[in-house]
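re: that chain from earlier
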Amino acid sequence: MATVSAIGKHQSGWITISTDEYESMKETIEVLSDIYIMEQLEKGTKDGTKARDFEELAEELGI
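^ sequence. v structure.
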C-alpha cells in the first residue's frame, strides 16, 4: 500500500488511503465501539471454543 503525506497551509498533516482501507477502518471502529459485540468476543475467547475457518466450514457444509 502506497502512502502519501503532505503538509497543508495550517501545518495540518494529510494522509491518503484507498477507499477499501478507509471502509475497513470504519468497520473496525464500529465493531470496537459496540459493547455487546466486544462482550461476545471476550466471552467466546474465554470459553475455550476454537474458532473455525469460514471457508473450511462452508466446504464441510457443502455451501
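Strands lie at 4-7, 13-16.
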